[in-house]
Design brief:
This protein has a domain at 2-110 and 207-270. It has helices at residues 57-77, 131-140, 192-201, 203-210, 212-227, 233-251; strands spanning 2-3, 6-16, 20-30, 37-50, 89-94, 102-107, 112-113, 127-128, 143-144, 161-163, 173-174, 178-180, 189-190, 266-267. It has six helices and 14 strands. Helix content is 29%, strand content 24%. Strands 1, 2, 3, 4, 5, 6 and 14 form a seven-stranded antiparallel β-sheet that branches. The chain has a three-stranded antiparallel β-sheet with strand order 7-10-12, with no helix packed on it. Helix 4 (203-210) packs across helix 5 and helix 5 crosses helix 6 (233-251). The chain is globular. It is α+β, with helices and mostly antiparallel strands. The structure holds adenosine-5'-diphosphate and magnesium ion. Residues 17, 160, 182, 187 line the site of magnesium ion.
């Protein structure tokens, strides 16, 4: 389907859970806070459509995932664990067309959801490389990413972790090529006091691992999560600007072909916003595909 200046092709129904329906799409158009972005190359993306579309839940889901992504950047960049395990996050839609009103867009992870936590032919747990450091360190900053990672009917089977090469070595290890997905309200629990405390107390180390603008984006995003109603329009505007810049840089890799001035992501005139007064009350703010 061709939409405005971008293209969205539905590839498949990517999955469904209790909170959301996921579509696998190939896109060059990414609506979101800070502007709709256009890339040259198509990107395999997950469109997560909330089943209970509370107003702003598309942006809220984007912001939850954004916070997890920036903490993941901090952890692997500082050597807490070795590789990134959180998909990139690309955009969000609030009050979209009636079929897709609240949703967000993030990187599709190719692989298998539902590997065995138990080594074949044994009762021993497999060792998923980086997993223990990943869950321990997220736990220490207030996020329980170990929650909701086993199938409700068979606790030996994983869920919400996409493994991209799900073969066990003889020693029972599985390699680090995995991504944690699903940052929904039922899947991850957030201790906001602990998260807020971490972001304030560790400002200096976070500024050095993430750089200043990204740290400020993280700090404002955590504030939005913790006390959305008390964030001023001025700070919401700053958060949108930081997010727009971050989304451009996440997508820049796919932008080659827009001319000699450097491969940059194109921004069209449309934008999404967190500021209530600027929010359209009816009709599409942007097109979800
Ligand atoms: N980025 C992704 N890459 C691969 N598969 C995905 C991705 N996002 C979701 N899925 C698939 O869709 C299913 C449902 O998505 P999920 O975010 O877990 O929704 P819910 O919160 O309803 O459980 C997942 O269990 C997984 O199989
Ligand atoms: Mg799930």
């Amino acid at each position: 389907m061709k939409l405005g200046n971008g293209v969205v092709e539905l590839i498949a129904e990517g999955g469904a859970g209790s909170e959301a329906v996921i579509r696998l799409e190939l896109r060059t158009m990414f609506p979101g806070l800070g502007g709709t972005l256009l890339t040259h190359e198509g990107v395999a993306a997950a469109l997560r459509i909330e089943r209970n579309p509370d107003p702003m839940s598309g942006h809220m889901m984007f912001i939850r995932h954004l916070i997890v992504k920036k903490l993941d950047d901090h952890f692997y960049r500082t050597g807490v664990y070795t590789f990134s395990h959180v998909p990139r996050v690309f955009g969000s839609i609030s009050y979209g067309p009636s079929e897709v009103r609240e949703a967000y867009i993030y990187e599709w992870a190719f692989g298998t959801d539902g590997f065995s936590w138990v080594a074949p032919g044994t009762r021993d747990d497999i060792i998923l490389r980086d997993w223990k450091q990943f869950v321990d360190n997220f736990w220490s900053v207030g996020l329980d990413l170990q929650h909701d990672v086993t199938d409700a009917e068979d606790g030996r089977i994983s869920q919400n972790i996409v493994h991209q090469y799900p073969l066990c070595t003889e020693s029972g290890d599985m390699c680090s090529l995995w991504k944690r997905i699903d940052f929904g309200f039922r899947s991850i629990q957030v201790n906001l006091d602990r998260l807020t405390g971490f972001v304030h107390d560790k400002a200096t180390v976070l500024q050095s691992s993430l750089h200043c603008d990204r740290y400020e984006m993280l700090r404002l995003a955590v504030r939005y999560l913790a006390e959305r109603d008390s964030v001023s329009d001025y700070d919401l505007g700053r958060l949108e600007r930081f997010i727009g810049e971050y989304r451009r840089s996440s997508l820049r890799h796919y932008a080659y072909g827009f001319g000699p001035a450097g491969a940059d992501v194109c921004v069209n005139g449309e934008t999404e916003t967190l500021i209530e007064g600027r929010k359209p009350t009816e009709g599409p703010a942007s097109d979800a595909g």
